[in-house]
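Before the break, one more example. Copy the sequence into your notebook; we will annotate it together after we see the structure.
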Amino acid sequence: MPALLPTEYTCEIVYLGFVKSRAEALASAPLSEAFASFAGFEGEDHGGLTRASCVRVKDQYPVDTEIRNVRQFSIISAEETAAAAAEIGIDDVKPEWMGASIMVKGLPDFTHVPPSSRLQAPSGATLVIDMENRPCMYPGKEEVEPHHPGKGKLLKSALKDRRGVTAWVEREGLLKVGDSLTLHVPDQRAWMPHRG
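Here is what the structure looks like once it is written out:
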């Protein structure tokens, strides 16, 4: 029996983005297509086979420890960001404002897709979902606030359970806007540490 099961669920890539330097700006620049190598998008700020650990994993490693980079991509959902925008009273939250690598549409409850699920493109490119990407203050402060004064501070809480996921490349290949990604999920029951 396979350990990963293809599902009937698919989603469409509606945005691809590239962050040249996070030190300069959070916003990503739009692309029509990009090659996803084992290190992510070549030259992209979040790319690389390894990365310096950050506060997200401070309980596991001292900050700046070299670790495997499972955060090569920030993937968000068009439906979830639309819900967050509606909650704070603006027309939309643009994917570039979120520093998104990929925005998809069509996959329900996207932020809570099981960790270790795969998204597979027609080229064979396959992304492994690491885990939920928790909201932070920077998209609201740096990107939303200049366009919608007074609304940026509301974004972090509106993105709770809607911030999308991080992912890394398991198989290299081309990703294109308009591609349909097929969801594959691990074939296992939910963890039950106190199973009686």
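The domain at 4-186 is CATH 2.40.33.20 (M1 Pyruvate Kinase; Domain 3). The chain has one domain: 4-186. Try to locate both features in your own notes.
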